[in-house]
Amino acid sequence: MYPFAFAKATDTREALDAGRGGGRYIAGGTTLVDLMRETVERPETLIDISGLPLRGVTVTERGGLRIGALVRMAEAAAHPKVRSLFPVISEALELSASAQLRNMATIGGNIMQRTRCSYFRDVTADCNKREPGSGCAALEGHNRTHAILGTSDACVATHPSDVAVAFAALEANVHLLGPAGERRVPFADFLLRPGSTPNREQALRKGELITAVEIPALPRPLKSGYLKVRDRQSYEFALTSAAVALHVRRGVIQTAKVAAGGVGTVPWKLPVVEQHLVGERPSDALWSSAAAHAANGARPLAHNRFKTELLKRTVERQLRIVGGTK
Protein backbone atom coordinates (compact mmCIF):
# COMPACT_ATOMS: atom_id res chain seq x y z
CA MET A 1 0.00 0.00 0.00
CA TYR A 2 0.98 3.66 -0.18
CA PRO A 3 -0.23 6.89 1.48
CA PHE A 4 -3.58 8.32 0.41
CA ALA A 5 -6.14 10.76 1.80
CA PHE A 6 -9.54 9.54 2.98
CA ALA A 7 -12.76 11.53 3.32
CA LYS A 8 -16.32 10.51 4.12
CA ALA A 9 -19.07 12.33 2.22
CA THR A 10 -22.20 13.12 4.24
CA ASP A 11 -24.35 14.17 1.28
CA THR A 12 -24.28 14.02 -2.52
CA ARG A 13 -23.18 17.63 -2.93
CA GLU A 14 -20.16 17.04 -0.72
CA ALA A 15 -19.34 13.88 -2.68
CA LEU A 16 -19.57 15.71 -6.02
CA ASP A 17 -17.35 18.53 -4.81
CA ALA A 18 -14.73 16.03 -3.68
CA GLY A 19 -15.03 14.00 -6.89
CA ARG A 20 -14.58 17.11 -9.00
CA GLY A 21 -11.23 17.54 -7.29
CA GLY A 22 -10.06 14.16 -8.59
CA GLY A 23 -10.96 11.84 -5.69
CA ARG A 24 -12.13 8.26 -6.26
CA TYR A 25 -15.46 7.11 -4.89
CA ILE A 26 -15.55 4.00 -2.71
CA ALA A 27 -18.43 2.15 -1.03
CA GLY A 28 -18.04 -1.61 -0.52
CA GLY A 29 -14.45 -1.45 -1.75
CA THR A 30 -14.40 -5.09 -2.84
CA THR A 31 -12.62 -4.28 -6.11
CA LEU A 32 -10.80 -1.00 -5.59
CA VAL A 33 -9.10 -2.02 -2.35
CA ASP A 34 -7.73 -5.15 -4.04
CA LEU A 35 -6.34 -3.09 -6.90
CA MET A 36 -4.78 -0.62 -4.49
CA ARG A 37 -3.17 -3.44 -2.55
CA GLU A 38 -1.64 -4.74 -5.78
CA THR A 39 -0.63 -1.15 -6.74
CA VAL A 40 -2.60 -1.44 -9.98
CA GLU A 41 -4.55 1.61 -8.90
CA ARG A 42 -3.03 4.43 -6.82
CA PRO A 43 -5.64 7.10 -6.13
CA GLU A 44 -4.46 10.02 -4.06
CA THR A 45 -7.85 10.49 -2.39
CA LEU A 46 -10.69 8.10 -1.54
CA ILE A 47 -14.19 9.44 -0.94
CA ASP A 48 -16.39 7.14 1.12
CA ILE A 49 -19.94 7.42 -0.25
CA SER A 50 -21.44 4.52 1.70
CA GLY A 51 -23.55 6.91 3.79
CA LEU A 52 -25.29 8.58 0.85
CA PRO A 53 -29.05 8.09 0.30
CA LEU A 54 -28.63 6.02 -2.86
CA ARG A 55 -30.32 2.89 -1.58
CA GLY A 56 -33.64 1.24 -2.11
CA VAL A 57 -35.36 -0.88 -4.73
CA THR A 58 -38.54 0.57 -6.19
CA VAL A 59 -41.01 -0.38 -8.90
CA THR A 60 -41.45 2.41 -11.44
CA GLU A 61 -44.85 3.67 -12.59
CA ARG A 62 -44.86 1.53 -15.72
CA GLY A 63 -43.67 -1.62 -14.00
CA GLY A 64 -39.92 -1.33 -14.41
CA LEU A 65 -37.42 -1.43 -11.57
CA ARG A 66 -35.02 1.11 -10.10
CA ILE A 67 -32.12 -0.16 -7.98
CA GLY A 68 -30.09 2.36 -5.99
CA ALA A 69 -26.36 2.37 -6.66
CA LEU A 70 -25.54 1.61 -3.01
CA VAL A 71 -27.89 -1.36 -2.69
CA ARG A 72 -25.78 -4.36 -1.69
CA MET A 73 -25.67 -7.26 -4.12
CA ALA A 74 -27.11 -9.64 -1.54
CA GLU A 75 -29.91 -7.22 -0.73
CA ALA A 76 -30.87 -6.79 -4.40
CA ALA A 77 -30.76 -10.53 -5.04
CA ALA A 78 -33.10 -11.23 -2.12
CA HIS A 79 -35.54 -8.38 -2.77
CA PRO A 80 -39.02 -9.79 -3.53
CA LYS A 81 -39.67 -7.38 -6.40
CA VAL A 82 -36.38 -8.22 -8.09
CA ARG A 83 -37.06 -11.93 -7.71
CA SER A 84 -40.62 -11.71 -9.02
CA LEU A 85 -40.20 -9.16 -11.83
CA PHE A 86 -36.69 -9.95 -13.09
CA PRO A 87 -35.36 -13.26 -11.71
CA VAL A 88 -32.50 -13.04 -14.22
CA ILE A 89 -31.05 -10.26 -12.03
CA SER A 90 -31.37 -12.27 -8.81
CA GLU A 91 -29.83 -15.33 -10.40
CA ALA A 92 -26.92 -13.36 -11.83
CA LEU A 93 -26.21 -11.79 -8.44
CA GLU A 94 -26.43 -15.08 -6.57
CA LEU A 95 -23.93 -16.65 -8.97
CA SER A 96 -21.47 -13.81 -8.37
CA ALA A 97 -18.59 -14.02 -5.90
CA SER A 98 -18.95 -15.34 -2.35
CA ALA A 99 -21.70 -14.61 0.16
CA GLN A 100 -19.31 -12.41 2.13
CA LEU A 101 -18.50 -10.27 -0.92
CA ARG A 102 -22.16 -10.05 -1.94
CA ASN A 103 -22.92 -8.69 1.52
CA MET A 104 -20.39 -5.87 0.98
CA ALA A 105 -20.35 -5.09 -2.74
CA THR A 106 -22.82 -2.58 -4.20
CA ILE A 107 -24.70 -2.56 -7.49
CA GLY A 108 -22.89 0.59 -8.64
CA GLY A 109 -19.52 -0.82 -7.70
CA ASN A 110 -20.25 -4.12 -9.39
CA ILE A 111 -20.79 -2.61 -12.82
CA MET A 112 -17.69 -0.44 -12.29
CA GLN A 113 -15.40 -3.35 -11.43
CA ARG A 114 -12.36 -3.83 -13.59
CA THR A 115 -11.21 -6.91 -15.47
CA ARG A 116 -9.76 -9.99 -13.81
CA CYS A 117 -7.16 -10.32 -16.59
CA SER A 118 -4.00 -11.58 -14.89
CA TYR A 119 -1.82 -9.34 -17.04
CA PHE A 120 -3.79 -6.25 -15.99
CA ARG A 121 -3.22 -7.18 -12.35
CA ASP A 122 0.48 -7.93 -12.83
CA VAL A 123 2.22 -4.55 -12.79
CA THR A 124 5.31 -6.10 -14.44
CA ALA A 125 3.32 -7.15 -17.54
CA ASP A 126 2.48 -5.04 -20.58
CA CYS A 127 -1.12 -3.81 -20.38
CA ASN A 128 -2.69 -1.01 -22.39
CA LYS A 129 -5.58 -0.85 -19.97
CA ARG A 130 -3.27 -0.14 -17.06
CA GLU A 131 -0.54 1.75 -18.94
CA PRO A 132 -1.67 3.06 -22.36
CA GLY A 133 0.77 2.34 -25.14
CA SER A 134 2.64 -0.43 -23.34
CA GLY A 135 1.11 -3.29 -25.31
CA CYS A 136 -1.13 -6.26 -24.49
CA ALA A 137 0.63 -9.31 -23.07
CA ALA A 138 -2.53 -11.40 -23.38
CA LEU A 139 -2.49 -11.32 -27.17
CA GLU A 140 0.49 -13.68 -27.31
CA GLY A 141 0.29 -14.95 -23.74
CA HIS A 142 -2.03 -17.35 -21.96
CA ASN A 143 -5.48 -16.17 -23.09
CA ARG A 144 -7.85 -19.05 -22.29
CA THR A 145 -10.23 -16.86 -20.25
CA HIS A 146 -10.09 -13.81 -22.48
CA ALA A 147 -12.65 -12.29 -24.83
CA ILE A 148 -13.60 -13.40 -28.32
CA LEU A 149 -16.09 -10.56 -28.98
CA GLY A 150 -15.52 -6.81 -28.96
CA THR A 151 -11.76 -7.15 -28.87
CA SER A 152 -9.17 -4.93 -30.46
CA ASP A 153 -5.44 -5.06 -31.13
CA ALA A 154 -5.03 -3.09 -27.90
CA CYS A 155 -7.04 -5.27 -25.47
CA VAL A 156 -8.78 -8.64 -25.20
CA ALA A 157 -9.79 -8.56 -21.53
CA THR A 158 -13.29 -9.64 -20.52
CA HIS A 159 -15.66 -7.67 -18.33
CA PRO A 160 -16.16 -9.75 -15.16
CA SER A 161 -19.62 -8.73 -13.92
CA ASP A 162 -22.50 -11.21 -14.01
CA VAL A 163 -25.31 -8.81 -13.19
CA ALA A 164 -24.04 -6.46 -15.91
CA VAL A 165 -24.95 -9.19 -18.41
CA ALA A 166 -28.51 -9.20 -17.08
CA PHE A 167 -28.64 -5.39 -17.25
CA ALA A 168 -27.37 -5.49 -20.84
CA ALA A 169 -29.98 -8.05 -21.85
CA LEU A 170 -32.81 -6.05 -20.22
CA GLU A 171 -31.56 -2.80 -21.80
CA ALA A 172 -31.19 -1.00 -18.49
CA ASN A 173 -30.25 2.64 -18.03
CA VAL A 174 -27.60 4.02 -15.68
CA HIS A 175 -28.55 7.19 -13.80
CA LEU A 176 -25.67 9.57 -13.14
CA LEU A 177 -25.22 12.74 -11.12
CA GLY A 178 -22.33 15.10 -11.70
CA PRO A 179 -21.22 18.72 -11.62
CA ALA A 180 -23.36 19.41 -14.70
CA GLY A 181 -26.46 17.78 -13.21
CA GLU A 182 -28.30 14.53 -13.82
CA ARG A 183 -28.22 12.40 -16.93
CA ARG A 184 -29.22 8.91 -18.01
CA VAL A 185 -27.03 6.64 -20.12
CA PRO A 186 -28.24 3.43 -21.81
CA PHE A 187 -26.37 0.48 -20.37
CA ALA A 188 -25.16 -0.43 -23.86
CA ASP A 189 -23.34 2.91 -23.98
CA PHE A 190 -22.14 3.00 -20.37
CA LEU A 191 -19.48 0.27 -20.61
CA LEU A 192 -17.04 1.00 -23.44
CA ARG A 193 -15.36 -1.42 -25.81
CA PRO A 194 -11.56 -1.08 -25.72
CA GLY A 195 -10.87 0.11 -29.27
CA SER A 196 -7.61 2.05 -29.13
CA THR A 197 -8.30 3.42 -25.63
CA PRO A 198 -8.84 0.40 -23.36
CA ASN A 199 -7.92 2.49 -20.32
CA ARG A 200 -11.27 4.31 -20.69
CA GLU A 201 -13.83 1.76 -19.55
CA GLN A 202 -17.00 3.70 -18.72
CA ALA A 203 -18.83 6.73 -20.08
CA LEU A 204 -18.52 8.56 -16.76
CA ARG A 205 -17.46 12.18 -16.83
CA LYS A 206 -15.09 13.62 -14.24
CA GLY A 207 -16.71 13.75 -10.82
CA GLU A 208 -19.86 11.87 -11.84
CA LEU A 209 -21.55 9.48 -9.46
CA ILE A 210 -23.78 6.51 -10.28
CA THR A 211 -27.09 6.99 -8.46
CA ALA A 212 -29.17 4.07 -9.75
CA VAL A 213 -29.68 1.42 -12.40
CA GLU A 214 -33.17 1.36 -13.93
CA ILE A 215 -34.66 -1.56 -15.81
CA PRO A 216 -37.46 -0.52 -18.17
CA ALA A 217 -40.89 -2.11 -18.06
CA LEU A 218 -41.21 -5.13 -20.34
CA PRO A 219 -44.35 -6.91 -21.56
CA ARG A 220 -45.85 -9.48 -19.21
CA PRO A 221 -45.80 -12.36 -18.61
CA LEU A 222 -42.01 -12.37 -18.77
CA LYS A 223 -39.83 -15.38 -18.04
CA SER A 224 -36.13 -14.81 -17.46
CA GLY A 225 -33.04 -16.48 -16.09
CA TYR A 226 -29.24 -16.53 -15.99
CA LEU A 227 -26.88 -19.40 -16.76
CA LYS A 228 -23.19 -19.28 -15.84
CA VAL A 229 -20.61 -21.79 -17.12
CA ARG A 230 -17.30 -21.82 -15.23
CA ASP A 231 -14.41 -24.09 -14.31
CA ARG A 232 -15.79 -24.72 -10.83
CA GLN A 233 -19.19 -24.22 -9.23
CA SER A 234 -18.17 -21.70 -6.58
CA TYR A 235 -16.33 -18.36 -6.50
CA GLU A 236 -15.24 -18.39 -10.13
CA PHE A 237 -15.68 -16.06 -13.08
CA ALA A 238 -17.60 -17.12 -16.16
CA LEU A 239 -16.07 -18.82 -19.15
CA THR A 240 -19.36 -17.91 -20.73
CA SER A 241 -22.84 -17.03 -19.52
CA ALA A 242 -26.27 -16.20 -20.90
CA ALA A 243 -29.03 -13.88 -19.69
CA VAL A 244 -32.38 -14.51 -21.35
CA ALA A 245 -35.81 -12.89 -21.02
CA LEU A 246 -38.79 -13.97 -23.15
CA HIS A 247 -42.37 -12.71 -23.47
CA VAL A 248 -44.57 -15.33 -25.13
CA ARG A 249 -48.20 -14.60 -25.97
CA ARG A 250 -50.58 -17.02 -27.67
CA GLY A 251 -47.73 -19.39 -28.27
CA VAL A 252 -45.56 -16.86 -30.15
CA ILE A 253 -42.45 -15.07 -28.90
CA GLN A 254 -43.29 -11.36 -28.86
CA THR A 255 -40.17 -10.06 -27.09
CA ALA A 256 -36.71 -11.60 -26.70
CA LYS A 257 -33.80 -10.15 -24.70
CA VAL A 258 -30.50 -12.05 -24.81
CA ALA A 259 -26.95 -11.19 -23.74
CA ALA A 260 -23.78 -13.13 -23.02
CA GLY A 261 -20.97 -12.77 -20.50
CA GLY A 262 -17.46 -14.17 -20.13
CA VAL A 263 -16.84 -13.82 -23.86
CA GLY A 264 -16.87 -10.08 -24.52
CA THR A 265 -14.84 -7.06 -23.54
CA VAL A 266 -18.21 -5.75 -22.34
CA PRO A 267 -21.44 -7.66 -21.59
CA TRP A 268 -22.40 -8.76 -25.06
CA LYS A 269 -25.91 -8.13 -26.37
CA LEU A 270 -27.04 -10.63 -29.03
CA PRO A 271 -29.48 -8.77 -31.32
CA VAL A 272 -29.25 -11.30 -34.16
CA VAL A 273 -30.29 -14.08 -31.78
CA GLU A 274 -33.16 -11.90 -30.54
CA GLN A 275 -34.33 -11.14 -34.08
CA HIS A 276 -34.26 -14.82 -34.93
CA LEU A 277 -36.62 -15.57 -32.01
CA VAL A 278 -39.27 -12.86 -32.31
CA GLY A 279 -42.41 -13.96 -34.14
CA GLU A 280 -41.58 -17.65 -33.82
CA ARG A 281 -43.06 -20.44 -31.75
CA PRO A 282 -40.84 -21.93 -29.04
CA SER A 283 -39.23 -25.21 -30.06
CA ASP A 284 -35.97 -27.08 -29.69
CA ALA A 285 -35.25 -26.40 -33.35
CA LEU A 286 -35.75 -22.66 -32.82
CA TRP A 287 -33.45 -22.52 -29.80
CA SER A 288 -30.74 -24.31 -31.77
CA SER A 289 -31.04 -22.20 -34.91
CA ALA A 290 -31.14 -18.93 -32.94
CA ALA A 291 -28.17 -19.85 -30.75
CA ALA A 292 -26.12 -20.66 -33.85
CA HIS A 293 -25.78 -16.87 -34.30
CA ALA A 294 -24.50 -16.21 -30.76
CA ALA A 295 -20.83 -16.14 -31.75
CA ASN A 296 -21.23 -14.06 -34.90
CA GLY A 297 -18.15 -11.88 -35.33
CA ALA A 298 -16.05 -13.81 -32.81
CA ARG A 299 -12.26 -13.46 -32.99
CA PRO A 300 -10.90 -16.32 -30.89
CA LEU A 301 -7.31 -16.39 -29.69
CA ALA A 302 -4.85 -19.25 -29.47
CA HIS A 303 -6.17 -20.69 -26.21
CA ASN A 304 -9.87 -19.77 -26.18
CA ARG A 305 -11.20 -21.12 -29.46
CA PHE A 306 -13.42 -23.44 -27.44
CA LYS A 307 -15.46 -20.41 -26.32
CA THR A 308 -17.08 -20.06 -29.73
CA GLU A 309 -18.88 -23.39 -29.49
CA LEU A 310 -19.34 -23.11 -25.72
CA LEU A 311 -21.13 -19.78 -26.17
CA LYS A 312 -23.57 -21.23 -28.71
CA ARG A 313 -24.34 -24.20 -26.46
CA THR A 314 -24.76 -21.99 -23.39
CA VAL A 315 -27.22 -19.68 -25.15
CA GLU A 316 -29.15 -22.63 -26.58
CA ARG A 317 -29.36 -24.30 -23.19
CA GLN A 318 -30.61 -21.14 -21.48
CA LEU A 319 -33.17 -20.47 -24.21
CA ARG A 320 -34.49 -23.98 -23.61
CA ILE A 321 -34.54 -23.49 -19.81
CA VAL A 322 -36.42 -20.18 -20.02
CA GLY A 323 -38.59 -20.89 -23.06
CA GLY A 324 -39.32 -24.57 -22.55
CA THR A 325 -39.21 -27.36 -25.09
CA LYS A 326 -41.70 -28.83 -27.53
From TrEMBL:
SMART domains attached to this UniProt entry: CO_deh_flav_C (SM01092)
Question: Keyword Oxidoreductase, does the record have it?
Answer: yes
Kindly give the InterPro entries that the UniProt entry links to this protein.
CO_DH_flav_C, CO_DH_flav_C_dom_sf, Diverse_Substr_Oxidored, FAD-bd_PCMH, FAD-bd_PCMH-like_sf, FAD-bd_PCMH_sub1, FAD-bd_PCMH_sub2, Mopterin_DH_FAD-bd
Q: Pfam families recorded for this chain?
A: CO_deh_flav_C, FAD_binding_5
> Where would I find the FAD-binding PCMH-type domain in this sequence?
1-220
Record key words, sorted: Oxidoreductase
> Per its UniProt record, what PROSITE patterns does this chain match?
FAD_PCMH (PS51387)
Q: Which Gene3D superfamilies match?
A: 3.30.465.10, CO dehydrogenase flavoprotein, C-terminal domain, Uridine Diphospho-n-acetylenolpyruvylglucosamine Reductase, domain 2
The lineage's top-level taxon is Bacteria
Q: What is this protein called?
A: Xanthine dehydrogenase family protein subunit M
